[in-house]
Amino acid sequence: MTELNFLSKLVGSFSEGAAGNPTVAMVEAAFHHHKLEWRYINCEVPPEKLGDAVKGAKAMGWAGFNCSIPHKVTVIQHLDGLGESAAIIGAVNCAVSRNGKLIGENTDGKGFLKSLQEVADPKGKSVVMFGAGGAARAIGVEVALAGAKTITVVNRGKARGEEVAKLLNDKTSAKATYAPWVPGYAVPAGTDIVINATSIGLEDEKAKLDINLDSLKRGMVVADVIVNPPRPALIRDAEARGCTVITGRGMLVNQGVTGVKYWTGKDVDPEVMKKKLVEIFGM
Ligand code: NDP
Which of 44, 125, 174, 218 could form a disulfide with 242 if both were Cys (CB 3.0 to 4.6 A apart)? Predict the structure, then answer.
């Protein structure tokens, strides 16, 4: 007689604005496709409850969890240790239980890089990156480690922007500078790759980065981290100006594949995840 087992292995996500995060659908599609008896629980967790949420996950034997806005940096104090890239980046988007200890990893930057490399090699390139939060730190570090020549960090908050530029200068061979986000910021001529790593555009099709759109030139690669909506304003505007565009979907799928590998040890098919996102967003 087959032994019955009604106990699924658990992972999930802690964030604010969890209702708009499609990761659960994407990861569960992969679990289902590969017949993995796992569940991914999407949880709305405010900052003051994050410590309790992590303790709860530990108590319930979760194999790990993703964390998203606004927990990627603050979660570190609740974990038992950090993997190599998360330690450099200083942000965690994926915690993994290893021998009873929760270790923070970062798969955001790697997911982004994989998606960028499908259209352009960042080696020797000049990059302008908007944002200096968790996603920006991860992307900046990975793009720099992949050989970007210069990275200009443009951020609303000066202290955060300067901190990311310093991190890149200290830990990588890229030459990074902070540029204040002046109204109508013009992307400098000669820029190869422009990245929106802010949350501008999230769940708002009309929200625009305060930049001079005419400074986006044909031949530039313009990447956006936003997944929902699937084609935010920056992507539409850049495409209309002849730029090569990269949406946030590839980054999301690639980091999802890595997260599932960390938790379950299994390689899942990225096409299954992509298909689910297309089903949800229609593109
Ligand atoms: P954080 O909260 O850590 O950082 C947010 C960043 O956006 C900061 O640089 C902040 O600037 C900037 N920002 C927010 N609102 C504005 C505004 N109105 N004007 C100017 N700047 C603004 O978030 P994360 O870095 O974790 O996430 C950023 C985005 O990346 C989110 O939309 C998230 O959904 C997306 N993401 C996508 C992934 C994917 O797989 N595609 C993976 C991870 C994230 P300041 O410092 O001045 O506050």
Answer: 218
